Amino acid sequence: MGCALIGCGKALPALEVQNDELKALVDTNNEWIVTRTGIESRHIAVEETNLDLAERAAREALGWDEGGWSERRIEPEEIDLLIVCTISGDNLVPSEASSLRMRLGLPNAIAFDLNAACTGFVYGTTVVEALMAASAAGVAGAAGRNPVRRALVVGAERLSRITDWAERSTCVLFGDGAGAGVFEWDEERAGVLGSHLVNEDDPTGALTCALTYDMPVPFSEDGIVPDANAEAAVREKAGNPQQAITMNGQAVFKFAARAMADAVTCVLENAGLSLDDIACIVPHQANERIVKFAAKKLECDMDKFHLCIAHAGNTSAASVPLALADAYAAGRIKRGDKVVLVGFGGGFTSGALVYEA
Ligand code: COA
């Protein structure tokens, strides 16, 4: 028995921006971007909100719309839990998950957001598996809590809103998109075989994005500041401070390549498996070179990794489920295959999960 993946889907915004088009914004070129990252183009949400992208990916995963992969159509009332993994939700309140719950009409779902940066989907799926296992064992259901039998996990990002489009070392990397997976507790299937989550410090702030609250706060250490509202009006006239991703590329690169290889090694060890048992590894798509470094460290053929970074870029929490849906659409994963999902990102977070398809 276990937590089985029974559907997945993806969504990319309509606008696709080629590397050379970014020359209009920063001093860069296609060759630099492709050789350093493997990225050729990315999709940018102009009209679409984070919620629009999340909805499209979810509808495919639920078998409501064509384009995804699903074992069957899931009815709205079947979903007990909805997690949206994101760092770029449309609102602080309501959560992206609450908005998506209403959009999709999932009457029985409890819904919340999860921020583990680019490792979000691995974290979210691990939470789902744990709640399903507890429910099946009668732990969560026993005291009238919320038993979880089926869950929807979505990774959705509109990173273009938190990208500094004048900073060439970051803006060429990111894109917008969403991916989704539906999981079901199945007495007959193994499903998730193990997961391994890690948090480590990022003491130098190698990867950050400040949250800028814009409302004036009319208090200081001495108490109320009567003129604060007037000062705020001046600030507002001067423009709000920027909220954008900042990154020390090389520090993040080193962390990422090491963390990715370690996470795969640990999850396989925990599950009593070896790389030879694995049909496909779906990594966070931050940079093709990071995957190559990790593959070398793992002594694993690059063919085992599914990559779709070339036309999506780094979509943070959307990246793993988006690539997973892409792998299913490409026919790379068949029933019974063992698959590893692996992520790494801001925090620093990292982690891997292995499941039997
Ligand atoms: N186009 C052209 N030149 C660029 C550029 C761009 N978009 N961005 C940076 N450069 C320049 C730099 O200014 C530098 O020039 P200089 O030598 O004259 O100072 C040169 O290219 C090399 O920069 P460097 O930062 O050393 O490049 P790099 O080989 O480390 O590659 C990254 C930069 C960002 C691609 C790489 O560090 C990386 O991928 N890091 C991890 C990023 C990541 O995945 N983050 C998310 C993790 S979840």
What does this protein look like?
It contains ten helices and 16 strands. It is α+β, with helices and mostly antiparallel strands. Helix 3 links the parallel strand 5 and strand 6. The chain is globular. The site of coenzyme A has 20 residues, from helix 1, helix 6 and helix 8.
- Tell me the span between the first and last alpha carbons: 13 Å
**Number of helical stretches of at least 4 residues:** 10
Bound molecules: coenzyme A
- As a whole number of angstroms, the C-alpha radius of gyration is 21 Å
State which percent range the strand residues make up: 15-25%
Give me a quick take on this structure.
This protein has 357 residues and is an alpha+beta fold. The chain contains ten helices and 16 strands.
Q: Key features?
A:
single chain, 357 residues, alpha+beta, 6-stranded mixed sheet, 4-stranded mixed sheet, 10 helices, binds coenzyme A
